Amino acid sequence: MAIPSRDDVSIVPRPFVVRDRVVETGDTVSLDLVPVGGGPVPEFAPGQFNMLSPFGAGEVAISISGSDEERGSWTHTVRSAGKVTDRLTRLPPGATLGVRGPYGVGWPLASARDHDLLIVAGGLGLPPLRPAIRRILAHRTEYGRVEIVYGARTPSDLVFSSEIQRWRLRDDLRFQTTVDAAGRDWYGDVGLVTARIPDARFDPARTQVWACGPEIMMKAVAQAAIARGVPPAAIYLSMERNMKCAVGWCGHCQFGPEFVCRDGPVLPYPALAPWLAVREV
Amino acid sequence: MSAARSSRPHALAPSSHPFLRDFDPPFLHGLAPASQERTFAADEYLLRDGGEADGFYLLLHGKVALEIATPERPRLTIQTLGPGEVLGWSWLLPSHRWHLDARAVKETRAIVLEAAALRHAIDAHPRDGVRFLTALLPIIGQRLANTRIQLLDIHRG
Ligand SMILES: Cc1cc2nc3c(=O)[nH]c(=O)nc-3n(C[C@H](O)[C@H](O)[C@H](O)COP(=O)(O)OP(=O)(O)OC[C@H]3O[C@@H](n4cnc5c(N)ncnc54)[C@H](O)[C@@H]3O)c2cc1C
Ligand code: FES
Q1: Does the pLDDT at position B23 exceed 70?
Q2: Has residue A247 been placed in a domain?
Q3: Is A53 among the domain residues?
Q4: Is A175 part of any domain?
Q5: pLDDT digits (tens, 9 = 90+) for A152-177
Q6: Of the given ranges (A24-28, A145-149, A253-257, B78-82), which has the lowest mean pLDDT?
């Protein structure tokens, strides 16, 4: 892909204001952001991300986990993992921050039409997938069977609980949740997301697999899908790398030959496989 | 073997359970007298840590939680198993003792093969025995691989 010129992309943050803040788990919140002064938010492709900068704290890449076009807002779901994300999770409604984007290549919704879909999310891998799942459900007849497996550390680490509840009740979708460990009050599944793949219902020759989560989990998902007969080129993973410019200029996010900010974050497995096997890239 | 709410003989066939798919009917036929279909009520234990490992469980229906209990912390479920999956291989190893608890999360039905008969059949019919172990090993290997990933606590970040 050609490197975008400095005129092609905006790297200047726009001021946004936190309109709403929803506590998802002990360390994760969803922030509803609207441009200061109102107006629409730019269109985005599910799987893309924005660079968020709580003023004076730095800047981080955060996926768009939802949007409300009518109300002109973007949702971002942030887990406190360090200095900048911690500041973001503490922003109250009314606080302002800088936002630039959307950036990157998202989920291949167009080429997935008429295919079965196996969507696997681990931990905070669900937020970048949620806009894609919502779009698929809004155009449900264009896709084949849809299987979603969502894994988290414990039941209290599951995000979007009320929306998941609604998805679980649908009969045109199978949504399975599994956690790494649980107490006796949990009646769901316990174990790795990969354990749900052998009996997932899809036609391997006409299936796309989308995965987002810890790299070791995504690698295991890809291997389990390939073992079921899914062609490697039909497997897409969303990668996370440290980002600075987010537009393909600085090379900070390089993963093998790919720049995750510009060529990804969603990349086909064959482009990633040689590098996922390497201990450090 | 733990008491189950109900049990009845089960006529074993390759179609009885995915694990049995590739076995010759005569081998399964030989095991049939040592197999029972059992139903466990919700919260009933199929097996207990330290108890005699005297059966191999082929799950047909329901859900089973594999639990670890220590004096210091509440019971922790480390894995759940469902229909089409198998449970328990400690009967293969000399101490013949279970190393964890398995509890029915909801009403659960399983074919239970008597361990002594299974060990005898594996010895007496080495070809089928190798097939049995070759079917079991990848399952053990996969669970070990999954446990290793779980140990990394990958979601903590
Ligand atoms: C495309 C993309 C989408 C992302 N989407 C989300 C999201 O929706 N929600 C969310 O909470 N987080 C998301 N992240 C991760 C988020 O950007 C990092 O957690 C954040 O940059 C950490 O910065 P910090 O200053 O808070 O922590 P730091 O103090 O810089 O680091 C805290 C920990 O996070 C690790 N880390 C730092 N930067 C990254 C990074 N870019 N990717 C992975 N690990 C990192 C560090 O090694 C360290 O272990 C995304 C990252 C990328 C690249
Ligand atoms: S972050 Fe600069 S090239 Fe990707």
Answers
A1: yes
A2: no
A3: yes
A4: yes
A5: 988 999 999 999 999 999 999 999 99
A6: A253-257
Residue A125 lies in a domain: yes
Of B106, B145, B155, which is closest to A214 when you measure between CB atoms? B155
Cβ separation B77–A79 shorter than 8 A:
no
Q: Which residue has the least CA distance to atom 52 on ligand 1?
A: A240
Q: Give me ligand 2 centre to Cα A209, in Å.
A: 26
Of A47, A70, A103, the domain-final residue: A103
CATH architecture under which domain B6-156 falls: Sandwich (2.60)
Tokens, residue A257 = 């030959």
Which CA distances in Å does A96 have to A38, A75, A87, A228, A229? 13, 14, 12, 48, 48
What ipTM was predicted for this assembly? 0.80
| Domain residue limits at A132 | 109-240+262-276
Residue-level pLDDT at A76 = 98
Q: Which of A126, A187, A196 is nearest to A161 (CA)?
A: A126
- Closest by CA to B88, choosing from B101, B74, B72, is B101
Is there an atom of ligand 2 within 6 Å of A245 CB?
yes
Question: Domain spans of chain B?
Answer: 6-156
Let me know: does B31 contact B118? Beta carbons within 8 Å. yes
Question: Does the CB of B77 have a partner CB in chain A at under 8 Å?
Answer: yes
Residue A1 — very low, low, confident or very high, per pLDDT cuts 50/70/90?
very low
Interface mutation vs chain A, best among B75, B77, B151, most A CBs within 10 Å? B77
Question: Is the C-beta atom of A78 inside 6 A of ligand 1?
Answer: yes
